[in-house]
């Protein structure tokens, strides 16, 4: 008889002997490495604003914006606790600033978006230009630009921060610096970037002052909402998305940031959307109105009624459906620009 065919025992001995050499067999993990379809560890998540707000206000009593540098409660995906991640690639948090406070100037390679959730009159300063915040405004802090926040008006102001922190961490490409001064010097009047780039026009000696990032610091809600309203009146409603637009970089027509795509959509009253799934997991912020989101993955179904200022996550390749009896407006962001740059974006719309 020949020697016995390699057995489980033989394999186990091989694994043990090579382990100290930092060697491991691919055939034991191959299936998990290249799954037949995306299998994210991220789970659907939902934060009701009424539950979150009291903690934000308590944070306002527990620490100043300056002491905290950024007074933020991180929205952590329940399956990624401790990782400061809302999806595998993205970070989200709710930031509070109170009248008279300053969040000191710094810069980092991570890109940031702000979506204003509550209150008015705080400002963010980017590269010497201040922008006043209003609910529903979408504001950008491009990679490596100095930025500070302040509040010289009334009442608490809360916004959603979206950053590419987990992605930049994955690439080990993060740099950061603190500014010498707390609040950077204002060098340009408010609205300068919008005047240059926000009216379907651009400087004649065209430049891209922030590289791959949009030179518009703030996309005011009033304008974005007006566009959706007009389209709702005049064009067919998409059976999956209602009326949905993406924010663009006016110099390229592409995404506003290289790593994060941003969207605003309006579901008309009585909308009962069809299901879809896509590879880019997304974070939603409810601006106005109310509705329901149903998220399914395999046998698991999650269902949440939402209202203004609630936040939720639709993970990669989970099927989602949106509906709204009274109509609503939703802001959302995802890592779609990266999926598209890599040629791996996939979307399936169910009939
Ligand atoms: C940051 O700079 C801000 O500038 C907010 O408001 C959240 C989370 C991690 C790292 C930097 C801001 C942040 C952040």
Q: Which helices and strands appear, and what pairs or packs with what?
A:
Blueprint: H1 8-18, H2 30-33, E1 45-47, H3 49-62, H4 65-68, E2 72-74, E3 91-97, E4 102-108, E5 112-118, E6 122-126, E7 129-132, E8 138-141, E9 147-151, E10 157-163, H5 165-170, E11 176-178, H6 192-197, E12 218-219, H7 221-234, E13 243-246, E14 261-267, E15 271-272, E16 276-278, E17 282-289, E18 291-297, E19 300-306, E20 311-314, E21 319-324, E22 328-334, H8 336-342, E23 347-349
Antiparallel strand pairs: 1-20, 2-3, 3-10, 4-9, 4-11, 5-8, 5-10, 6-7, 6-9, 8-12, 13-14, 14-22, 15-21, 16-23, 17-20, 17-22, 18-19, 18-21
Bound molecules: 1-hydroxynaphthalene-2-carboxylic acid (1HN).
Largest sheet data? 6 strands, antiparallel
| Total of helices | 8
Find the CATH superfamily: Jelly Rolls
Portion of residues within helices: 10-25%
Radius of gyration, whole Å = 23 Å
Secondary-structure-derived class: alpha+beta
Fraction of residues in β-strands: 25-35%
Mean pLDDT: 97
Query: How would the global form be characterised?
Result: globular
* Strand adjacency order, main sheet: 1-20-17-22-14-13
Q: What are the low-pLDDT stretches, counting only 5+ consecutive residues below 50?
A: none
Distance between the termini: 61 Å
- Record field, number of beta strands: 23
- CATH fold node name: Jelly Rolls
The CATH architecture would be Sandwich
Q: In total, how many domains does the architecture comprise? A: 1
Assembly state (oligomeric): single chain
Ions and ligands: 1-hydroxynaphthalene-2-carboxylic acid
CATH class: Mainly Beta
């Amino acid at each position: 008889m020949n020697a016995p065919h390699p057995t489980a025992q033989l394999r186990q001995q091989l694994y043990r002997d090579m382990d100290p050499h930092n060697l491991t067999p691919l055939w034991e993990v191959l299936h998990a490495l290249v799954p037949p379809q995306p299998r994210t560890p991220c789970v659907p998540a939902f934060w009701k604003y009424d539950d979150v707000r009291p903690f934000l206000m308590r944070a306002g009593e527990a620490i100043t914006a300056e002491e905290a540098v950024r007074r933020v409660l991180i929205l952590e995906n329940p399956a990624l606790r401790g990782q400061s991640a809302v999806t595998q690639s993205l970070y989200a948090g709710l930031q509070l600033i109170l009248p008279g406070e300053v969040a000191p100037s710094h810069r980092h390679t991570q890109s940031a978006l702000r979506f204003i959730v509550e209150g008015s009159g705080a400002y963010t300063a980017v590269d010497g230009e201040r922008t006043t915040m209003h609910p529903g405004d979408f504001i950008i802090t491009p990679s490596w630009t100095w930025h500070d926040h302040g509040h010289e008006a009334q009442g608490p102001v809360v916004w959603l921060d979206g950053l590419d922190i987990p992605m930049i961490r994955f690439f080990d490409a993060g740099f950061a610096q603190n500014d010498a001064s707390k609040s950077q010097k204002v060098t340009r009047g408010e609205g300068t970037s919008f005047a240059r780039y926000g009216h379907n026009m651009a400087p004649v000696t065209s430049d891209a002052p922030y590289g791959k990032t949009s030179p518009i610091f703030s996309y005011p809600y009033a304008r974005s909402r007006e566009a959706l309203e007009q389209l709702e009146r005049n064009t067919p409603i998409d059976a999956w998305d209602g009326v949905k637009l993406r924010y663009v970089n006016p110099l390229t027509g592409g995404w506003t940031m290289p790593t994060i795509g941003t969207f605003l959509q309006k579901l008309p009253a009585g909308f009962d959307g069809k299901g879809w799934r896509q590879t880019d997991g997304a974070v939603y912020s409810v601006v106005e109105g109310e509705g329901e989101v149903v998220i399914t993955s395999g046998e698991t179904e999650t269902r949440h009624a939402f209202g203004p200022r609630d936040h939720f996550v639709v993970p990669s390749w989970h099927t989602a459906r949106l509906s709204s009896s009274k109509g609503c407006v939703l802001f959302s962001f995802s890592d779609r620009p990266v999926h598209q740059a890599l040629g791996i974006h996939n979307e399936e719309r169910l009939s």
